[in-house]
Amino acid sequence: MGRTLAEKVWDDHVVRRAEGEPDLLFIDLHLLHEVTSPQAFDGLRLSGRTVRRTDLTIATEDHNTPTLDIDKPIADPVSRTQLETLRRNCAEFGVRLHPLGDVEQGVVHVVGPQLGLTQPGMTVVCGDSHTSTHGAFGALAFGIGTSQVEHVLATQTLPMSPFRTMAVTVEGELPEDVTAKDLILAVIARIGTGGGQGYVIEYRGSAVEKLSMEARMTICNMSIEAGARAGMIAPDETTFAYLEGRPHAPQGEDWDAAVEYWRTLRTDDDAVFDHEVVIDAAELAPFVTWGTNPGQGAPLSTSVPDPESFADPSERQAAQRALEYMGLTAGQPLREIAVDTVFVGSCTNGRIEDLRAAASLLQGRRVADGVRMLVVPGSVRVALQAVEEGLDKVFTAAGAEWRHAGCSMCLGMNPDQLAPGERSASTSNRNFEGRQGKGGRTHLVSPQVAAATAVLGRLASPADLADVPTLVEA
Amino acid sequence: MEAFTTHTGRAVPLRRSNVDTDQIIPAHWLKKVTRNGFEDGLFEAWRKDPQFVLNLPERQGATVLVAGPDFGTGSSREHAVWALQNYGFKAVISSRFADIFRGNSLKNGLLTVVLPQETVERLWECTEADPTARITVDLVERRVTAGDVSAAFELDDNVRWRLLEGLDDISLTLKNEDDIAAYEANRPSFKPRTLQT
Ligand code: SF4
C-alpha cells in the first residue's frame, strides 16, 4: 500500500524502531526562543550534557521583545532576565542566536523559512506549538514541550508515538477577498479545536496548490488550533521557487539532489488517510471568530450564534461563557461589532504578503477615529522589505503604528496588550480569554479584514470599503 | 522524574471544556526561568472569583483535577504542567487532552487519564455531592475508582513503564548512541546546517 507524505517523512527519520516502543526520530532542525528554553538548558547543565548538534540548532528572540525603543534597555526586568538568560545559554553551549537588534531577528517561525532553513522532507521542532507553520514546505514540523527541548538538545532525536493521517482537500477557486486565513478558520470551525487531535493533517487539492508559500504557512500554522500534531503541504514548483537562492538553500549539485528527493515527497495515489475532509473553496467567505477558542468562528456576513443552537451540551456551555466574556449577544450581526484595536502581525499573518494586503486597502484611507492599529512585521527582514516598498509610509499615513518585529500583541508578553474589556480584530491565531491582555477580547481575522475593520471601526470585509473613497489615487 | 504507581486524593471538579494553556498559566508567568514557583499563576484569572471551584474551602488540598473535554489546548508551554504540579495536582482526568499538553504531562510524571465523558460526568457528580470523596488513580491496574465509579483507562505500555519506574527519557535515548551516530553518518549532504562547519 502507498504511503502518505507524512508517513514518508517520518520513515526517513527513524533512527531506531523496536516493538512496543515509540520510534526514535532524528530531528533535522531545532529552533529555540527565550520562553521555553531556559529550563531545558538548566537541565543540560545539571546533568553535565552538551548540545549534540549545534549545527542543527538556531535561536532567536521574539516573545518578550519590545516593539518600540529597541535600542534602550528592556523596561520589564523579568523579560530582560529571560532574554539575557537565552544569550548566556547560547554563548555557553555554542548555539547560533539572532538577538534583538540583529537583522535576522524575528518570530521564530518567520525566521526559519526566510533563511531557507526549513526545507521539504525535514523534521523540524521548536518549543512552540506553531512550529506546524514549517509544514507548508512538506516538512514534518511540530511543537514540543521544554522536556523535549532538552531531549533534542542532548540527543538530536525524539521518541515519538505514531500519528494518524487526515486529508483536508480544498478544491476549486477561492472567491475574491477570501484568504488562506479564512480557509483555515473555516476548517477549524468545521472540525473543532479537538478534531485534529492525534492527526497530522495534509492540506491538498487545487485550491491549496494555487496558494503562495506564505499563504500555505498561514494554513499550516493554525493546524494546532484544530488540535492537530502538525499540518503539511506537499512541496511543488512553488516551494522550490521560494527556496532557491535563500541563504541556507542547497546549491549546485546539492540543489539538484535535493529537488530530486523533494519531488518524491507526495502522497502516493493508493495511500489511505485515516480521515478525510473535503471543502469546496467556492463556498468560503471572509471568516471571523466570535468566541474564545479558534473553533468558534463564522462567516463575517452572519450573526453571533445563539448558544441554544448547539446540540452538544459542552459546546453550548462554552458558547454561553464565550458570549459573556466577549460581551456579545446572540443574533448580533458580526459586521456591527465595533473594535478598539487592530493588530496585524504574528507568525500566522506577519509576512510581507500580509503587510502588502493590509497596506493596499489602507492606501489613501484613514484608520477610524478612536481605533488603534498596530502593524508588527514578523521579522526584521520583513520590516526591511516593507520599508523598501514604502508600506510603512502607507501605514503611518493612515494613522497606524509601525512597530519593530516580534510576537507583540499575539500574546502580550511585551507591553503591547489590550486593556481589560478592549476589543481587537487580530491577524494572530488565538482568541483565548486574556491572550492579548487581561480581559481583552479578540476576534481572529485575515489581514484584509483587519485593514477594512481598521478603516470602518467595526468588523468589515474589503468589499465594505467600496463606499469609502480613497483620498489619494492609489 | 518521580515514579507514579497509584495515587488517592480529593478532587476538584472543573466543569469547563477547552481549558487552554493560556488559562492554566497566563503568558506573563512564562518569563520565569525556573521550573517551580508557578502555583500562584495556576488558573490565575479565574481564581480572582472567590466562587471559582479551586477557591472553595472544601477543595483545598485536593490533588486530582477532573476537567471537561479538550483540556490543555493551545500553546506548548510546559509551564502549564509545572503549574498544576506546583499547586499539588498529581493527576488530571478528562475525556480528551491536547496532544502536546498530554506529552508534557507524562514526561513530568503528572498522570493524565482519559476517560469517557459520561464517566467524567459521574466523577463530577460524585465529587460535587461529597467534596470529601476520594479518587484513586491506579496506574498499576490502570483503573480510576471513586464512590461507586470504577473505570479502566488505557495508557501506552511503554509510557506506563516509564512512569512506574520514574525513568528519564534522555538517559534511555542515549543508550542508543550507536543508532544515532549511524543515522547521522548517512544523512544527505544537502540538508541545511545553521553553522558553517
Ligand atoms: S507570533 Fe504568536 S503564535 Fe507565533 S510564535 Fe509568537 S506568540 Fe507564538
Task: Please give the most extensive interface between any two protein chains, plus how many residues each contributes.
Answer: A-B, 82 and 60 residues
- Biggest β-sheet of chain A: count, sense, barrel? 5 strands, parallel
β-strand amount of chain B = 15-25%
Roughly how many Å is the radius of gyration of chain B?
Answer: 19 Å
Quickly count the helices of chain B: 8
Structural class of chain B: alpha/beta
Total count of helical runs of at least 4 residues of chain A? 16
- Provide the β-strand percentage band of chain A: 15-25%
Cα shape of chain A: globular
- Please state the oligomeric state of the protein chains shown: heterodimer
Tally of DSSP β-strands of chain B: 7
Note the run of SSEs of chain B as H and E: EHHEHEHEHEEEHHH
Q: Nearest-angstrom radius of gyration of chain A?
A: 22 Å
List unreliable stretches of 5+ residues of chain B: none
Tally the beta strands of chain A: 19
Distance between the termini of chain A: 55 Å
Q: Are there runs of chain A of 5+ residues with pLDDT below 50, and where? A: none
Can you list the strand order of the major beta sheet of chain B?
4-3-2-1-5-6-7
The percent range for helix content of chain A is 25-40%
Describe the structure using short key phrases.
heterodimer; A: 474 residues; alpha/beta; five-stranded parallel sheet; 19 strands; B: 197 residues; seven-stranded mixed sheet; 7 strands; 17% strand; binds iron/sulfur cluster
TL;DR?
The complex is a heterodimer of chains A (474) and B (197). Helices cover 31% and strands 16% of the residues of chain A.
Describe the 3D structure:
The complex is a heterodimer of chains A (474) and B (197). Chain A is an alpha/beta fold and 474 residues long. Helix content of chain A is 31%, strand content 16%. In chain B, strands 4-3-2-1-5-6-7 form a 7-stranded mixed β-sheet, sandwiched between helices. In chain B, β6 and β7 form a beta hairpin. Chain B is globular and about 65 Å long. Chain B starts with 5 loop residues before the first strand and ends in a 12-residue tail after the last helix. The model of chain B has no long low-confidence stretch (mean pLDDT 95). At the A-B interface, α2, α3, α5, α10 and α11 of A face α4, α7 and α8 of B.
